[in-house]
Amino acid sequence: MMKQYALILLFVLISSPILGQTEIEAKELTKKEIRALKKQKAFEKQKERYEKRGLNAWGINENAPNLVLAIREHLGSARIDTQRGLVIIRQSESMNNAQAYPLWLVDGQQFDFPPENIPLQNIREVNVYESLAETNKWGQLGRAGVVEIITVNASQ
What we know:
This protein is α+β, with helices and mostly antiparallel strands and 156 residues long. It is built from four helices and six strands, in the order H-H-H-E-E-E-E-E-H-E. It has a four-stranded mixed β-sheet with strand order 4-3-6-5, with no helix packed on it. A two-stranded antiparallel sheet has the order 1-2. The longest helix has 22 residues, at 31-52.
């Protein structure tokens, strides 16, 4: 009986590589595909970090009372007035410039103050521009910084 099991086991071990052999074709990934995979992997890691902090996959607190608190994660070292919902990214160097608060761009539309009518769950990307070089294209309006918000509507 033991010999029969041993023979059957030996037959299975010998025949399985022969029967199971299939041709595997290796495909090299293009640079574009590699970049896309790296980007996806980085997004997944960031998503896990955000979820640990109670934020959605894009780093937005959907339960926040206002837009400024919802995107707080993206504002970095900016000073935030939580009472009024205002942000100071950097002080304007010019005394002539009355622009103390950053310019807000939502899907390309400009606002002087944080807009209140944006559904927080629709925000997909937040970019904060602080330096003069970054804000130069908005001229005087961008002297105090620029907060760009891209929603799901614009990314489609």
